[in-house]
Amino acid sequence: MRRRHLLTLAAAGAVAGCARGALPQRADGAVAIEAPGGGASTGPAGLVFPKDFGWGAATSAYQIEGAVKDDGRGPSVWDVFSHEPGRIRNGDTGDVAADHYHRLDEDLDLMRDLGLKSYRFSVSWPRVLPTGWGAVNAKGLDFYRRLVDGLLARGIAPVVTLFHWDTPQALQDLGGWENRDCAKWFADYAHTMFTALGDRVPTWLTLNEPKTVVDVGYTAGTHAPGKRDRRLANVVGHHLLLGHGLAVQALRGTTAKGRIGAALSLSPTYPDDDSAAARRQATIADGEENRRWLDPVLLGRYPQDWLATQPADAPVRAAIKDGDLAVISAQSDLLGVNYYGTTHVTGTGSRVMRHPTSQATWQEIDPNGLYDLLTRIKRDYGDIPLTITENGMATKNAMLDQDRITFLRDHLAAAHRAIAADVKLESYHLWSLMDNFEWAEGYTQRWGIVNVDFATQRRTHKASADWYKTVIARNGIS
Ligand code: IFM
Questions:
Q1: Domain 9-477 class?
Q2: Fewer Cβ atoms within 10 Å of its own Cβ: the N or the C terminal residue of the chain?
């Protein structure tokens, strides 16, 4: 799904209260429900999720941490890009963001109070390795050690993303992901993290949304590093995948006990009508949106029809070396799925919106697409454990965010249906825990269930945060 134009979301109905019956009462007053046999079930208590389902929330380093010059952190491409005039709405930057670096304990308590079972965050590569490689910045690493330990002390499982777009600027000066060596630099950094925290992190994610780097950072040029070169973009995409595979291999070479996989942004594609032309275009779009990422990682090959779209002289062809796909498909333990919506294409290949959108007008909101996506992954790629690593919507700065509650409820219902269809979905991380720096949109888009007043840094639950807290406590939705 591309970041693009369109409609406004009509807020839907309220969430009905759950039947209480003789169900066990928890200390916080919520009713705990458990599916018989530990699987997903449906009954008077509503949609019950499997026992131990990982109710989570997600963030990323540059979007919340701030403290960009503290304790020896080096600059990333986003520090440089966001300070270039005209790049970010209102001239915003991530210099302070949600000041999470200085408010770690408060934010950890916030997560505990919500009842989170799982928290997905990313490590800022240049905070740990200020120039991307070489000597470790002990203070930077210590921040992540405190974060992981603080989560574990609160009974929250850390899910650690190694790359959420903040390439060290020093490496960008050497070509960044355009340079094949970047895959190796990334694996070395990953190895540093596995060695430092491998004894306590249960889940690692290599890359977040390589598609967005390719489409927005290197094609549209509206994300860092701001290039507009589709041919180069596909080389970058290949090197990112290579970095993923090398990082998976690096983990296997350490004593780290965690599982590892990638977090891919995926969007089911549908023909806009029944014509052969529309169906053909939907297949092409599926190659671009989904299979060019899923196939290399999970099947060890690029889709032939996607490769066929690359001209004979496309530099990506030369970038794919013998043996690369064996590295890229190094056995993943799980797959992270970022799901924001569906993609519809006409017979001429144009994209059309067939569902409501949000404040982020590229988003086509369709909860059924999540069910289609999860069951399709099982069907086409096998029974790999899945985690939803992102799912959410942007709303105006409203504390009574009923539209977000409806969104979350409908997507959780779709996830529940997929579990009932035997998809191994283990956890769900909504995007996002708190309002943050939304890249080129600066602070104008609000994605959090927790409101951040960026003038005071005060955190306040939106209605969706209270709702999600109840969902977690009840282990399900009505
Ligand atoms: O904020 C981003 C996140 O960094 C990556 N996935 C999509 C989110 C909303 O645009």
A1: alpha beta
A2: C
The DSSP call for residue 86 is T
Q: How far is CA 100 from CA 56, 65, 95, 352, 385, in A?
A: 18, 4, 11, 38, 30
Report helix, strand or coil for 344: strand
CA distance 49 to 117: 13
Interval 112-141: pLDDT, tens: 999 999 999 999 999 999 999 999 999 999
Q: Is the pLDDT of residue 214 over 90?
A: yes
Query: Which of the following is catalytic: 65, 178, 209, 441?
Result: 209
Domain spans, the chain: 9-477
**Ligand 1 centroid to residue 222 C-alpha, Å:** 14
Whole-model pTM over 0.85: yes
Does residue 187 surpass a pLDDT of 50?
yes
280 CA from centroid of ligand 1 (Å): 29
What pLDDT is stored for residue 29 in this prediction? Answer: 37
Residue 37: CB partners within 8 Å, gap ≥ 6?
A: none
The identity of residue 54, as a single letter, is G
pLDDT tens string 254-276:
999 999 999 999 999 999 999 99
| 3-class SS of residue 29 | coil
pLDDT reported for residue 40: 87
Which contacts qualify for 455-461: CB closer than 8 Å, 24 or more apart? 457/98, 457/99, 457/103, 459/106, 459/107, 459/110, 459/434, 460/399
| 386 secondary structure, DSSP code | E
In this structure, which amino acid lies at residue 463? A
Across the strands, what pairs with 58? Answer: 120, 431
- How far apart CA 326 and CA 304 sit, in angstroms, is 17
Report the distance separating Cα 100 and Cα 385, nearest Å.
30
Nearest-atom number in ligand 1 for the CA of 431 is 8
Q: Which residue has the tokens 């009974």?
A: 155
Contact 367, 414 (CB under 8 A): yes
Bond from prior residue into 158 cis (ω within 30 degrees of 0): no
Give DSSP secondary structure letters for 169-224: HHHHTTTGGGSTHHHHHHHHHHHHHHHHHTTT-SEEEEEE-HHHIIIIIIII--ST
CB of 40 within 8 A of CB of 419? Answer: yes
Ligand 1 centroid to residue 441 C-alpha, Å: 11
